[in-house]
Amino acid sequence: MSQLPELPAGLPRLLNAIPAHGAMSLDEHLAVHGEPPLAHSRRERRDAAALIDRLERAGLRGRGGAAFPTAVKMRTVANARGRPVVVANAAEGEPTSLKDRTLVGALPHLVLDGGVLAAQAVGAEEVILCVPDTIDLAAPQRAIAERRELDGSAKIRLATVPERYVAGQESALVNHLNGGPALPTFTPPMPFERGVGRRPTLINNAETLAHIALIARHGSGWFRALGTSSEPGSTLVTLSGPIAYPGVYEIEQGASLTSLLEAAGGTTSPLRAVLLGGYAGAWVSAEKLRGLALSAEHLAPHGATLGAGIVALLSEDACGVAETARVLRWMARQSAGQCGPCVHGLDAIATSVEEVAAGSARGKARQRIARLATLVRGRGACSHPDGAVRFLVSALEVFAEDFADHARHGVCDACRRPGELPLPTASARTAAMALSR
Length: 437
Known about the structure:
globular; 18 helices
């Protein structure tokens, strides 16, 4: 392999040389990152498995939300019986996240590099790139066509997935690729045991694969030059709300929230709260944001995580009850429709919160909502109800005064304002968001 272009140890890494418009071509990608260390000979294919050890030393964890150790997942698939399949998951049904469609739309070859390298490491011959059926497919289609001339590439194909919240869940993705609906299925068997085509299947988030592409080139030590000992490297964050330049930013793991907001030009309004981790995440009130670091260690006391890299700001002018009601109704409509807690439980919760928002709730509405949350938590066939309950419980705590005020006085002036949290309407999902540099 020829000598690699020098990539800075600092930031940006994934977003290095990202084009202002359109997608980076294969020639441009190779000029920035150099050729990936693809295996061409039989001996090199045997050596490709060493990439898993390198990822283990790097400490890379999945960027899809669960933060599972990437090397552990890959090693499990590599040791399974049968010829594996690699799935690059860029389905991204979370409305507050744009990072994966940014990678696929602007830097598709970084994702495909990671997919092909992961395939060689686990012994797979096929990579399936899954994207929402609502995005422009030109960039990934062009990238796949360009790579047909790159020696050592595994067979790559593109698959579209319905833009639905639960469609990106691993078992839902497998079910869809096997010809069924994009809905979660009961497990076991797990995808690594029997997934696409009943073969062992490695499913990695698009950002995770992009990191693999760079770690394979530059090593685990380079990756660990950023971040903390327990959370090394960089990560992509989608920042939205009252901020000068919303969009996708690359930050050092463990960076402060303040540094992220400063990089985005600062807030345009005083904040009431910040939602971390998306609509299955948790709220943190504005008075607790000072000195907050975006790491698992610092967010745990607040019951929060970054999840898939989501920071959604809520202005002081917004009503916490109205925003909570909007999101919970949307989450209820995103139900897989396969179990009572999801179908009936989430609908009952959304209805109760809507009644509080409308000022029509009777009696001890807050206690009734909390009781419903207890009945739903941990009883769903998939994690969707648990995520909605996590969002609700944090809202009841952070917006306690709003809930109490609505119970006493009904609708507030802020309720009449347009909602601030993004939901997937045609305008919200197609609006261009500025990319960080």
